[in-house]
Design the sequence.
């Protein structure tokens, strides 16, 4: 029994919602930041709606953009490492996973204290069902938790799906309405991206899509009387929270 309990201990809690807040809260999370031509506008938009977000930072984009990271922290938003090169770390040696996460957090820790417990979201959320990944994360940051999501606006491929400005507005609205009308919207962790990292170049239309998606989502949340708060780790993770993979 002791050995079994010990192995259970490697499994990280998986968060999909805000557990300890009011029912009028959600948690907007933004992957892949920072980008110089979008992140400052995202911060302005968040400030306009009195919203706080959780940013999962890509190291290679953060390097040289420390001033933007400082602005994120100064505005009261949360920041966590999202790896360094935005690769599937669950398909790499675990030594690289730990090294990439440590490299990114070393940069972030120069701008704000390292959070404990740490919230982890690997690129593509790869490996969240994989025992090997859970063990590596437990070794990298004991007590860490995986910040998953319940709802996504699916903006990772907007630039492909909506290449023209006219159809983009309609497409964004459709995805935002889908999220806002979800029966489990309240307390949900919501996934967005800051110019999602893919084969399409950053800037221009891709930047417009990023800014408009956040603006329209926050406008809709405000209309529903909902506000975005940073994701907080579970104070007392239950056993169930470690095995909710659906």
Sequence:
């Amino acid at each position: 029994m002791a050995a079994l309990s010990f192995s259970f201990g490697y499994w990280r809690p998986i968060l999909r919602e805000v557990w300890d807040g009011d029912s009028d809260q959600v948690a907007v999370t933004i992957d892949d930041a920072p980008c110089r031509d979008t992140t400052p506008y995202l911060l302005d938009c968040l400030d306009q709606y009195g919203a706080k977000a959780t940013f999962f930072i890509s190291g290679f984009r953060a390097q040289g953009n420390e001033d933007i990271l400082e602005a994120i922290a100064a505005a009261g938003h949360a920041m966590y490492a999202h790896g360094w090169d935005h690769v599937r770390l669950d398909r790499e040696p675990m030594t690289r996973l730990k090294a990439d996460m440590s490299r990114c957090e070393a940069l972030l820790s120069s701008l704000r204290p390292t959070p404990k417990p740490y919230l982890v979201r690997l690129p593509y959320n790869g490996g969240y069902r994989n025992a090997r990944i859970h063990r590596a994360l437990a070794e990298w940051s004991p007590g860490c938790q995986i910040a998953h999501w319940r709802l996504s606006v699916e903006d990772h491929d907007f630039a492909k799906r909506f290449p023209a400005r006219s159809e983009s507005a309609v497409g964004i609205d459709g995805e935002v309405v889908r999220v806002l009308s979800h029966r489990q919207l309240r307390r949900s962790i919501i996934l967005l991206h800051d110019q999602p990292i893919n084969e399409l170049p950053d800037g221009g239309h891709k930047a417009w899509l990023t800014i408009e998606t956040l603006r329209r989502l926050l406008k809709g949340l405000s209309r529903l009387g909902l506000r975005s708060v940073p994701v907080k780790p579970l104070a007392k993770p239950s056993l169930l929270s470690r095995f909710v993979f659906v």
About this structure: The longest helix spans residues 205-223. The chain has one domain: 13-230.
